[in-house]
Amino acid sequence: MRRYNDLGGLLFADWVSIYLTWLFLRFGIGPTPATVGMLIVGLSGAMLLPFGGVFAVIGGLLVVTFYVLDCVDGEVARYMGVEKYIWTFHDFFFGYFVKTAFYLGLSVHAFQMTGSVWAMVMGSSAILGMLFKVFLEQAPLFLTSGHVFQRTEKECQNICRELAPFRKDPSTADDSINATLKWRDALSSYGGGLGIIRSTVLNFHLSALGFVILAIADLWIPPFSMMGTVFDLKTLFIVFFGVALPLNFLDHLIHWIRNDKFHKESARLLSDIA
Predict the structure, then answer these.
(1) CB distance 267 to 163 below 8 Å
(2) pLDDT (average), residues 158-162
(3) Which pLDDT band holds residue 7 (cuts at 50, 70, 90)?
(4) pLDDT (0 to 100) of residue 160
(5) Of 41 and 200, which is predicted with more confidence?
(6) Cβ of 154: how many Cβ atoms within 10 Å?
(7) Which residues contact 55 (CB under 8 A, 6 or more apart)?
(8) Residues 67, 271: Cα–Cα separation, whole Å
(9) Who's near 36: CB < 8 A, 6+ residues apart?
């Protein structure tokens, strides 16, 4: 399943989750406790963040554990042969419930630290940047479904004609979807060194690990003043992502527009279905 995992799984979670998966299988525990547990653990961690100090460290570790459990539930389900499609629906929303709660919890902490409303805005900005990027990546799926498969035959034909120049010849299509993807090849899909660094910094699950490190450092580094406002490292964290995630979305949006990626992804979807 390496080709379906994000960079967080490739660099961290896949190397850890397998041991917890072994324990689940050893004691005959199914995937559902991991799926439900990831929501409980993740939300509990997010709720601890506003309290700062040791609570923030524990909260960050719980958010990291949330992702490990997210990997475990899939590994256990596939190994036991009990995968159910409905759980992809729950898993999708559980993940974004926790991610949203994480940024909200941090924005509350930042507001308490700075006493400024703009700190709350940083949390909202991070959430919107994250969700808009998800909408962008999923747009070909739900728009193609809605406009091609649920419209009249004439409308469908018009859209298919527009997408025709972007469809690949079936004889040249990549049929290696079931092949095992090597770790190096999966990593290279993120581009060169700068692309990997950017993806690593902006990956939610890896940034949660970084947050734990900053939260631990905050236990020894006292709050400091910048431009008349009191900060700690956790506050700087949410300020950074409150700026970086919206910019990341805008950069991807411009890339999609310039490279006709919506057309290409929609055409690829139609080709895969055909």
Answers:
(1) yes
(2) 85
(3) confident
(4) 83
(5) 41
(6) 8
(7) 48, 49
(8) 33
(9) none
Pull the structure tokens for residue 92: 């999708």
Q: What are phi and psi of 180, to 5 degrees?
A: -75, 130
Q: Which two tokens stand for residue 97?
A: 């419930």
Other CB atoms within 10 A of residue 144 CB: 20
Q: What is the mean pLDDT of residues 14-40?
A: 91
Interior angle at CA 42, CA 125 and CA 67, nearest 5: 95
pLDDT in tens, 162-216: 888 888 765 555 545 555 667 677 777 777 778 888 888 999 999 999 999 999 9
Q: Judge contact between 161 and 130, C-beta under 8 A.
A: no
| Rounded (5°) CA angle 142-159-252 | 50
Question: What is the Cα–Cα distance from 168 to 163, expressed in whole angstroms?
Answer: 10
The predicted structure's pLDDT at residue 123: 93
The two tokens of residue 253 are: 């949006």
CB atoms within 10 A of CB 169: 7
CA–CA distance, 124 with 241 (Å, rounded to integer): 10
Give the model confidence (pLDDT) of 230-258 as tens digits. Answer: 899 999 999 999 999 999 999 999 999 99
Cβ neighbours for 215, distance < 8 A, ≥ 6 positions apart: 56, 57, 59, 60, 233, 234
Closest by CA position to 101, among listed 31, 41, 162: 41
Q: Which of 114, 107, 128, 102 is nearest to 244 (CA)?
A: 128
Token couple for 158:
């018009």
